[in-house]
Design a protein that fits this description.
The protein is α+β, with helices and mostly antiparallel strands. The protein has 2 domains: about 230 residues, Transposase IS200-like (Alpha-Beta Plaits), CATH 3.30.70; about 60 residues, Arc Repressor Mutant, subunit A. It has 11 helices and 6 strands. The strands form 2 sheets. A 4-stranded antiparallel β-sheet has the order 4-5-3-6, sandwiched between helices. A two-stranded antiparallel sheet has the order 1-2. Helix 1 packs antiparallel against helix 2 and helix 3 packs across helix 7.
Length: about 300
């Protein structure tokens, strides 16, 4: 993975080996990001089929213009999910371009004014393969969890067909990335992925737009329930990009439990461990208040650590 030198530092705190200093939005070649965006308030984002089709056209165009690999997506009534692999340091520019284009067209088409989207897009960075698998299944099951359809296969505006149907379609979506982590034989990989979707439906999770721990919980659940679901070795197409110097969610849970046992942190290694934890959570899309609640500390403590 290509990263600037000041984005990785070596620290020694038990099982933790490396940390990094994320900007407000992480962006560098090799990063996998789950991007969510939603309409303002309770307004719809898509009113008819042509709106969904136009967004798909823009996603494809944005991927081509900004050298992004789209791994999966779900277009919902008032929000959307897109899973990207970056080949260049340009995620914020790419997302601004995508959502601005859609907003201008939407306002023009329906003769309206004002913001189409509620705020800047939200990003969750992915550094763990089980975490990535959890995101992928969440995206494809989102219409079911939202109560729109009973079965994920009944929904038109996700990438489930690319992952589950026994064909090798030519498309701008790189469906091979996640499936190849399961098995290089895509027929076998699809069989396992379909079975996983059926199982994950029974796992109770909240709304990722409200609870950032959803993917971490789901990734840990998949890892424990299916310890052999991911093939050994590197991803055949991109190499070992996930988990390269970053903590998986089980490791973060251990760090949280360890730090909560200590009233005050005096040891420099503990202080570094706390900063490491906060940075990892920030990269996963947590805000200051959410990091404070998860870690059991004050908002001021989080703010000081992230700006130290």
């Amino acid at each position: 993975m290509k990263m600037k030198n000041n984005q990785k530092i070596l620290i020694k705190t038990g099982g933790i080996k490396r940390s990094f200093h994320p900007r407000k939005k992480l962006s560098f070649p090799g990063l996998i990001s789950h991007v969510t965006q939603r309409a303002t308030g309770r307004e719809p984002l898509f009113l008819e089929d042509s709106d969904y089709l136009y967004m798909l056209k823009l996603i494809k165009r944005t991927a081509e213009e900004f050298n992004l690999d789209v791994l999966a997506f779900a277009l919902m009534t008032n929000h959307l999910h897109i899973l990207f692999f970056q080949n260049e340091d340009n995620l914020t520019m790419a997302m601004h371009n995508l959502f601005t284009r859609y907003g201008i067209n939407f306002n023009s088409k329906y003769e309206r004014k004002g913001h189409v989207f509620g705020s800047i897009f939200r990003q969750t960075s992915c550094f763990d393969k089980h975490y990535l698998l959890g995101i992928s299944t969440y995206i494809h099951l989102n219409p079911v969890r939202a109560g729109i359809v009973r079965n994920y296969s009944d929904y038109r505006w996700t990438t489930w067909r690319l992952y589950c149907q026994d064909t090798d379609p030519v498309t701008f979506v790189n469906w091979r990335f996640v499936l190849s982590m399961i098995n290089p034989d895509y027929t076998l990989a699809r069989n396992r992925y379909r079975a996983l979707l059926d199982e994950v439906r029974s796992f109770k999770v909240g709304n990722v737009l409200e609870d950032k721990r959803v993917f971490g919980k789901l990734g840990i659940w998949i890892k424990k329930r299916y310890p052999g679901i991911l093939k050994r070795g590197d991803n055949s197409e991109y190499g070992n990009l996930l988990g390269d110097g970053y903590a998986d969610d089980e490791e973060l849970e251990r760090v949280v439990a360890s730090l909560r046992e200590k009233d005050r942190l005096r040891n420099p290694s503990d202080i570094k461990a706390r900063i490491f934890l906060f940075e990892q959570l920030q990269a996963r899309g947590y805000g200051v208040d959410e990091i404070a609640e998860y870690s059991g500390v004050s908002r001021a403590t989080v703010y000081r650590a992230l700006n130290s």
